[in-house]
Amino acid sequence: MKALLRLLRLAREERRALVGAVLCRVLEGIFASLPLGIIVIALLPVLDPANAAPAWLRGPLPDLLSGPGAPLWALLFMLLAALLQGLAAYAAAELGYGAGYRLTARLRARLLEHLARLPLGTLRQRDTGDLTTVVMQDVTALEIVPGLLLPRVVAAMTLPALGVGAALAIAPFFGLLLAASLALATLVLLICQRGLRRTSEERSAATAELNVRLLEFVRGIAVVKAFGLASGRLGRLEEALAASRDSGRALTMRFVLPMIGVPAILALGTALLLVLVAVRLPGGELGAPEALLLVLVALRLFAPLVETVEFFAMLRQMEAALGRVETVLALRPMPHGEAEPAGSRIVFDDVSFGHGERAVLHGVSFAAEPGTITALVGETGAGKTTIARLLTREWDPQSGRISIGGVDLRDLSPETIAALIGVVSQSVVLFSLSVRENLRLARPDATEEAMWDALRRARCEDVVRHMPQALDTVLENAGAALSGGERQRLAIARLFLKDSPIIVLDEATASLDVENERQVQEALQELGRGRTVLVIAHRLWTVRDAAQVVVLGDGRILEQGSPAVLRDRPGPYRTLSEALNTAPGWRRIDPSSAPPPSLLKTAGTFG
Ligand SMILES: Nc1ncnc2c1ncn2[C@@H]1O[C@H](COP(=O)(O)OP(=O)(O)OP(=O)(O)O)[C@@H](O)[C@H]1O
């Protein structure tokens, strides 16, 4: 019940439709029961020849139903009841399912908007498959609540109660008997609910985990095939498959008791009622019309309660899905200010940071001047990427201060930070949209000319001109048909359009052929001109052309200064330079095959 209230909180805009759907479903049940009354009234002349039935059973209707046109009237009333029942069912479905689909569409949009506002650092803590499961599977689990589950469950609880109320009015003794069997069945249902909740949650969690693992498997299918792995050798996937199987079985077993118990109790109550009716009828303690009405009520109104046992289990799973949706919605964006930076000078001032217990950076201080390159170098795991991520405020430092243009990052809005920084990384993300739409992600109002200019500067004008529909060519499968270099250059074209004053460049693991590499480097050289560039450097030329090099080791700055100065004195930088040919991750571009492109024409500053 609490879960339903929580859902109603989320479904504020659909509340009226929801209430309408529930009311219509109850009305449908009542209209479905009307023929029972018509049958009894139509049979009154036979059941009550002495005309001893209570006044409420007689009245104008019996006259119509016992007169000359009785069969026709009975048929007409039946049809009317069926029509009303149909209308109520239609309205319930229209209102309920409509509300369900509206709710889930709105909830998905809200979740996506919410995820987009969360810092990347928070999102990185969760598996992307896990988030996909929440947005897709868990929200889908809520879809059927307004249309199916909620109205059915409410109707199933209301109709038997109405039936018992009617029975109490007809014959209190029998009414009490029905009330007792209803109470007992409800008690069994509630007791079974206890265990059902945990099992449903386990089932729901197992399904979510399986989804995550399957997504991982499909995404990594190339590796799976390359290593000839069967799914069985991916331990966590196998565990997830087993957990899904076991939880499904456990849930079904949980059903067994209420599925057998509830109908059995209700059937027992009805049987007892029939026996007692049979005993009391001949003595005249109970009129024949009332007796028939009681029997029909008992048979008709308890049926929904029986079928609801299954719905209760679905409600529990809905509750678990709702919990996961709420957990994501409860993740909070970082608090921020709305200050405006004065320029694009970056300052790290005594910054320390760690993931939980794991300290990653210790008292890092440096400044990156506008129009220059600052190269971060160091062994793997030294903390270079962490510095770049702190700059985009994926996380806040535990101590110290990071500022852009003299303003602490915490005082800048996420939109301002996003507008200030353009990131070039090896994992280029393109969408299955047209080239035009992909470019306009960076600047929605970009003109055709601006787009071609950006493509030219990114050295991919020809690539796009040769596509079948040029700018309107859709990059199917997120641009999978493009080469690595083409993808890179399209991403760089996007950054030309974005025109942010700071560029963060992660050179790691570039694996482009010489021609592509040359074009990408030329594009980057032009992109970096006049901006503040922070580069995670893996190539000697980038370092050589930087205004300053920050050498990191185990999260600390070991050395910093201009490359020329650092090269001239013994120290970590010189050691790294000398180890160039052997150190993993560092690459020398062979001048004979491709001239070493330079980010800078004049060392240290952009032209
Ligand atoms: N989410 C995380 N939780 C715990 N430790 C992490 C996390 N992310 C990174 N680290 C650790 O922080 C340290 C610094 O990582 P970082 O990625 O910044 O190094 P790097 O210098 O960029 O390395 P590389 O050159 O290999 O990319 C590493 O030891 C890494 O294991």
UniProtKB/TrEMBL annotation:
Residue stretches making up the ABC transmembrane type-1 domain: 19-317
Domain ABC transporter: 346-579
Compartment(s) where it occurs, according to its Swiss-Prot or TrEMBL record: Cell membrane
UniProt similarity note: Belongs to the ABC transporter superfamily.
Gene Ontology molecular function, alphabetical: ABC-type transporter activity; ATP binding; ATP hydrolysis activity
Any single Gene Ontology cellular-component annotation: plasma membrane
UniProt membrane topology term: Multi-pass membrane protein
Region (Disordered): 586-607
PANTHER family attached to this UniProt entry: ATP-BINDING CASSETTE SUB-FAMILY B (PTHR24221), ATP-BINDING CASSETTE SUB-FAMILY B MEMBER 6 (PTHR24221:SF654)
Source taxon at top rank: Bacteria
Name of the protein in its database record: Phosphate-transporting ATPase/ATP-binding cassette subfamily B protein
UniProt main location, coarse: membrane
Regions crossing the membrane: 21-47, 72-93, 149-167, 173-192, 255-279
Pfam family of the protein (one): ABC_membrane
Entry keyword set: ATP-binding, Cell membrane, Membrane, Nucleotide-binding, Sugar transport, Transmembrane, Transmembrane helix, Transport
